[in-house]
Protein: Xanthine phosphoribosyltransferase
Organism: Granulicatella balaenopterae
Amino acid sequence: MELLKETILERGQIYPNNLLKVDSFINHQIDPMLMAEIGKEFKQYFGDREVTKVLTIEASGIAPAMTTAFEFQVPMVFAKKTLPSTLMKDKVYSADVFSFTKNVTSKVVVAETLLNKGDKVLIVDDFLANGEAVLGLKKLIEDAGGEVVGVGILIEKSFQPGRQKLEDNGLDVYSLARIKSIADGKVTFK
Amino acid sequence: MELLKETILERGQIYPNNLLKVDSFINHQIDPMLMAEIGKEFKQYFGDREVTKVLTIEASGIAPAMTTAFEFQVPMVFAKKTLPSTLMKDKVYSADVFSFTKNVTSKVVVAETLLNKGDKVLIVDDFLANGEAVLGLKKLIEDAGGEVVGVGILIEKSFQPGRQKLEDNGLDVYSLARIKSIADGKVTFK
């Protein structure tokens, strides 16, 4: 998606250790016009499939997952990273997600009432690096008796093993911007 | 806003201690069509004011803040509740927010680059109870040299002191659904 690639080049920031930061349009400040276009792009790619729900993880996934769900005219669910007090009384599906960046394992949960047998779920997330988050969401969906119909990613770090792992798990991954390398403060797309 | 009130009556759940749960369309699962209408409603109410940015708090505020920002064609910023690792190197505006529900004080932060002198900010949040969250956001905006042009709330618990506190601070509060009471499992609007 050219618009996203251009925005990354114009507004992304490269931090020490070649860390790409997109806080000015995806992760902290959000560009709602870009998000609307992203929703349309995912609808165009996945539009031939039956989708009953869009699933993401709080917080950065919420915006693009919502515009995508709007295009499909279906509900969006965001998995929570902790157990807030209001969820404690509910039964939840849960999965452990290991973060290589932070070197910690955290739990993602979805209330059992919100994922159902027969659900055909499109997963949307902002970054794909090692694929652990998406595999965690896949587990939640399958624990509920649903199935993953596709995975929509905004920014794929193609130099990391996430895509391969997801494909090995039978998932169809569509990434709007695939980054081949980040070096010397410069992003190169595939 | 009739659509929101009807949705609360149809899909809201009353838990013990008269706790209203809206996890099936606002707080965990999100109804993107409802959110689009909410954005239009806030645009209609606040549309005569200059708005340069919409500000909310993660995670439940993101969806309605984004549709509102889309209507105004301005960026949306969400304050973060903790300091994620990628923010650590940045300077932030911060405010303490006391939660009466959880009886804890937490910190909300926004990177200094994302709030600026002269910004005219519309605050959007899902619930208004004691007003502490909105007052925290107001502090961030004013620390940056900006001003609050209005406060858009989805669900106001009018039996709690939030609105009064915000009005005492000179804020114009527009709530889409004002709840007068929750008793015996029943919601009554003002």
Remarks:
- Residues 99 and 105 of chain A are 6 Å apart (CA to CA).
- The interface with chain B takes residues 15, 19, 21, 23-25, 27-33, 35-36, 58-59, 62-63, 66-67, 69-70, 73, 75-78, 80, 85-87, 89, 101-102, 110-111, 113-114 of chain A (CB under 8 Å).
